[in-house]
Amino acid sequence: MGTNNIVECKNLTHFYGKRCIYENLNFEIPQGRILGLLGKNGTGKTTTINILNGYLKPRSGECLMFGENSANLSPATKQKVGLLIEGHVQYPFMNIYEIEKYYSAFYPKWKKEAYWELMKLLKIDPKQKLSQMSCGQKSQVALGLILAQDPELLILDDFSMGLDPGYRVLFVDYLSEYARAESKTVFVTSHIIQDMERLIDDCMIMDYGRILYQQPVEKLLNDFKRFRFSSNGQSFEGLEQVMHPVTIKGKTEFYSFEKKEELERVLTYSGFKPTDIKEESLTLEEAFIGLTGKY
Amino acid sequence: MEKALLYKEWKKTHVFTLTIGVIGIILMVYIMLKLGRSFRMAGMEHLWDVIVNRKQFLFRNLKYFPIATALCLGMAQYFPEVIQKRIKLSLHLPLPEKKVILLMYSYGVGILTIVYLLQLIALLVFSGINFPYEFTINALLTIAPWYIAGFITYLFVAAICLEPVWMRRILITLLAIALIYLFFLSDVPAAYQSVNYLLVVALVMVFPFGFYSVQRFKEGKQ
Amino acid sequence: MQIIRYTIILLATIILAWLLPSFYHLLSDTSGRNVFTYYSSVDEAFCSIKFDEKEDRLIRYNVKTKKEYSEAEFDSILPMFYYRQLLSDGRFPDSINERAISVKEINSRNFFYRYNAKDKNTPAIPIYTLFESFSGRVKLEMPGDVFRLKNKIEFINPETNRVDKVKSERFMRVFVQSEFQFPAKGVFGNPSTRKPYDEGYMIIDNEDQIFHLKMVNGKPFLKNTLFPKSINPAFISVQEPADKSFYAFVFDDSNKVYLITADNYKVVQIQTPEFEVNKDRLMIMANPLYWNINVISSRGKECYALSADTKEVVDSLSLLAPAEYDFTLSNILPFELRFTTGSSDYIKPSVRFATWWVLLTNLLLIVTFVFIGKRRNKQVQPFELIWIGICGIFGFIPCLIFKE
């Protein structure tokens, strides 16, 4: 195990039948970092989360959490991990009192206040069962339970699923404030990337079968830009620096990690006339699209 | 922690559990009232003659109660766990996974045992008052397979629900139906008396199937 | 976890070994032959009826001479069987082969007795009803109590579920006086009010002696029948024939049948064709001249005709089908597991094995299994190969479908 890596995945390879999800995937999450796993549907986000929690045996490779193989986590390790299942799944037959009482028995460091602080914000009847709550309300209950558990590592699978914008913001605010204040390690996936920008330190962008990018968000937004210029409809084939070019009515738009000056040079060399080339900074969502393509 | 898990099982199934208990009691009361009526209408001597020489079994209404209750309780307990793969929540608890399943089992088996015991005690008292012990022994030998089948049904429902692969679920269901059918091959009272121990062996064999399903779930079989 | 998978495979194998053959039987079984036969006291030969499918009619014939009879002729060939028809036609003879007969004699000495192995192999509650044998009434009446008999005899009143101490002691004294050796090993009777009189019970004591128990004027009657020590009784069928000439049929543990006669409990062996007391059916159709002894087994029927007076065999007939060879049962299905049989009410597993040729089938299945495993890129385990080698198709299917 590395110096202070909470999670380490080594050479993960997984297939569903003959479909390769990824081969030899390696990544780690250092202590105190918030890592966002970004990817389109079906690129293996939930697969990764499942392997990490021991709900899926990869074809080869292994995941270590706190140095333990994730297929056989000890109770002590599980106590240190807070898990939010896709869709904020919890027990629908309990109300907020019962579910708090239930989980408190399992975690010695249980922080009741953290839970109730969040519950106070919800306009719910205390006797209301979870099954009668809205998706947003359920997400707050699930989050409250994880915060009260006070885990060292939080794993959140697609927390934005089914949430209204208000609840999404509430969720992100609460989570990021909590994680940074307590120096928690967080591993999170979401298909709404807007939310992630305000939350995550590092991002890992997956495409079908591989990892496209794994760096701090700051670095990504610094290095990765969008460029526009008027082109003459030539082919970009062979230009590795130019990512996902789209030309509509003579206006070309593409993405690149290269500096503007270098791009001008390369494009000119290839026969373009990028005289009006413009560089644009991106949001995380735009960068994601730039990396993975619109399709 | 163990208590909390049982508390969750209770919250999940208490409506079913209580219903099963009440139906069990109502069924027993119904049988006794019906028999009481036959005592008055036909007379005890005739009834005894019918039991001994025509092999009528007075408690035959109990026949499918154990497997029906086991089916309902098992579904009530494990079906919500597989919707949205909620079982992940239980497996993520800071307890050994086998222990989590074992605790869920013990809740279900415990509830069934209580319901079955209530009936058994009622039957023993009723039979003891009205009939010689030979009848009671015969009745116990007759109902034993039905109640063992009840426990087996419960264990199978657990294993089938927890199993992640649909095809495998169907195969295990077929196996379950065939095995449980084996407990209902005869209408002759006490026909299973010399093989009741084999039925218990079957029960022991089926017991770990649920753990296997959970193992497969954990490996992410699809 | 592997061990659980093996358990599932084992259980599935057992279930298949039971279900597959029984489905196969459902598809392939034909009914066994059980034709009517009766020994003609006129022809002094067995006669039978068979159905001619070509001509779509019944053929009545003498088995020995093959002579065919019309329906009316057949009545008079079997006067002991069709005596009612003959009587109503006014054709009933005075004598048969110079022996005088009368309807009265037929009525008192004709009887039908049916034994099915199920009569013996059935779970019973050891509680018995003892009727008053001289009730003085036309119809037998329920006595108002029942008894149990193991280490002592006790009468219980159904209305109160209490032991009648006085009556129990009265009977117990007789048991002690008669030197009955407790515990009783078997109590056999015919507790029914649908019979002309009651002969009570035949009881086997701990030393295999047979005692006759009945109730006469409310008093116990218990007598040691002095049954021969050389015979080990396994089952007794108490009868109340109209002519009161005998008490019971006794089946011993070596498949022999005896009659306890009313002549001071004298024991007479009844010759039977080959008979298995735990499997076969026995039917006795008796008339004043001959007893037809029929043994019906899975292979068909065998008959003896005994002289009614001497019980000597006068003729025999075998209608056994040759043992049927079934390819599937001999070579494909390695064994057959059954839990029920027609000869017992008990649920009990029994196994019937196929021929050694089935090992060849098993070997083919192993090869197929390895081949399928290779194609699917799955590792073949030694357990699976051994299991298929032993259990053939029953192991092959579960090993295949419960493969990881």
**Regarding CATH, which class of the largest domain in chain A?**
Alpha Beta
CATH 2nd-level architecture of the largest domain in chain A? 3-Layer(aba) Sandwich
In what order do the strands lie side by side in the largest sheet of chain A?
Answer: 6-7-8-3-9-10
Low-confidence stretches of chain A: none
Tell me the radius of gyration of chain C: 28 Å
Count structural domains of chain A.
2
Q: Rough shape of chain C?
A: flat
Beta-strand segment tally of chain A: 14
Query: Reading side by side through the largest sheet of chain C, how are the strands ordered?
Result: 7-19-20-21-22
By oligomeric state, this entry counts as heterotrimer
Q: What are the main properties of this structure?
A:
heterotrimer; A: 295 residues; alpha/beta; Rossmann fold; Alpha-Beta Plaits; 2 domains; six-stranded mixed β-sheet; four-stranded antiparallel β-sheet; elongated; B: 222 residues; mainly alpha; 9 helices; 0% strand
What does this molecule look like?
The complex is a heterotrimer of chains A (295), B (222) and C (404). Chain A has 295 residues and is of the alpha/beta class. Chain A contains ten helices and 14 strands. Chain B has one domain. Chain B is elongated, with a radius of gyration of 20 Å. The two termini of chain B are 31 Å apart. Chain C has ten helices and 24 strands. In chain C, the strands form seven sheets. Chain C has a five-stranded antiparallel beta sheet with strand order 7-19-20-21-22. Chain C is flat, with a radius of gyration of 28 Å. The termini of chain C are close together. Chains in contact: A-B, B-C. Chains B and C meet through α2, α6, α7, α8 and α9 of B and α1 of C.
